[in-house]
Amino acid sequence: MRRAFTLIELLLAAVLLGVLTSLTMMTFNSVTHGWQVSTDYLDKMQRTDFALNQVISGLRSLYYPHGGEQSYDYGFYLTDNGDGEDPDRSDVIEWSKRGSAIVGSKSAAVDTVHRVQLMVLEEGNHDYMEPIEVTGLYARHCPDVTLRPKDNRDDIDFSFGNDEMYQPVLIADGIVGFNCRVLPTDEKVEAEHDESLFEDTWETSNAVPYKVELTFYLADPDGRAYRSNTAPIMRIVRMPLYEQSKDGAAPPSEKAARESGGARRSSSDGAGRTSGGGRPGGGGGVPGGGGVRPGGGMRPGGGGAPPPGGGR
Q1: Which of 98, 240, 241, 294 is within CB 3.0–4.6 Å of 64 for a Cys-Cys bond?
Q2: Is there a contact between 261 and 218 (Cβ–Cβ < 8 Å)?
Q3: How much helix, strand and coil, in percent to the nearest 5, is found in the chain?
Q4: Whole-angstrom Cα distance, residue 6 to residue 13?
């Protein structure tokens, strides 16, 4: 005689099957979610790294004239708004450059000197002509002061202070914070990566700092900002034309050529005296000189007169 399963045994088997199925689905969903989060994070890392390389290329394309004096029109500006871990506490930087970095190879500004402003903007920001649709890293660029229209210059503000003139362009989404620190001079450099010497503020707006430290903060797939102890992306850039911006002198290559030429003439003189040049081209430093500051006011790029003083 065959023995059949009882009702209790069938119910117990159904309960066990349900528990095992639920555990399997939970494990599968957890693994799938973890894989999706990792993929999204890596994607954001790649896009942020691309954006950071664009910013680095833009900084290395920095332009500063060698006309013999310093100028507020070409200085590096830093607006310190906090630690940079969210849009409201993110810094704003501004500088003059050449080339396609940040603005794109199809931009009309590629072959000319132009001013660039970099910042993090939050979704829903209405400070500009069109509202910001996605939180991320944005850039604006305007023509160099020498290329701006001369007609109606008194009636129209062609600087970044005119928010309706230059709409921000998205560089990379998923970036919720940006912090910038500067190493003002090379006088106290003790090590190649000595972070203790970097400062949060840069008050010399008619020159260029020795080094710039850039830190980007990412947003996780759930919209939260990664904490600072999760290794935000950071780079340190040695700024070109640092020496030139201190005194407005000729580029180092021209200076070396003139000095070497003077040394050759001196040696051929035969009397132990310098018979020629050796004088660096471009003249001495004139702190605080050179034109009207393109920025000013309470925000970067605003109107107003240049601050007093010169290069530190």
Answers
A1: 241
A2: no
A3: 30, 20, 55
A4: 11
